[in-house]
Amino acid sequence: MASLVATIVLIFFVLIPLTLQGRTPLPIAMGISVFAIFVTIPIILGFKKKTLAAILGASSGVSLATLLALLSGRLMHLSGIVTDEMLTVFYASFADVDLRSLALAGIVISALGAIMDVCISIASATEEIFRAHPEISIAKAFRAVFIVSADMMGATVNTLIFAYVGSALPLLLLIALRIEPGMPFWLTFNFTPVLSELVKSAVGCIGMFLSMPATAFFCIELHRRSRGGA
User: Distance between CA 143 and CA 163 in Å, rounded?
Assistant: First the structure.
């Protein structure tokens, strides 16, 4: 609860006020995400090797998610006006709100929870492997963590996809109403809200995927160094 309150405070008292002042939301969202990682993970795990590994892995995942959001926004020409609420914000705000950056900031924040989740799980699993088998070799430890990561990937991807589909059910109904007989299905991808949801799902999944081996590497490297390089 303490970590959740800290994250909510950062969003409502830092991201939203600065965005309404005309600041670019994406770098603010990335800074808040990294700060939330440094605050939240020690509250959950305490101050241990696995805490540092989870922080480094999650920070890497969020940084990658930010780069992917920027790249996808540039390549796919996301306008940022993906909902009626964003359009209302644009005209109701006294500042010039960057809607493209706001949409990308939402993608990064959406990916934050899943990234922290898997990084904490992988760091804890790695820690327990070394605690149960202190003599285990680095190669065997990494292989064991890889097996855990593979199982976790399948379960977490399902969680992410179902969460995105559940939140986008009205959008799916709208797509079904717009599709006419004989219309190619790929034309629905030209619809900006659909494209935005696809980008959000892809960025979250890729950031999560790559943060898992990064967390495992950092955790195993910390244990290797504590052994004196063995």
Answer: 30
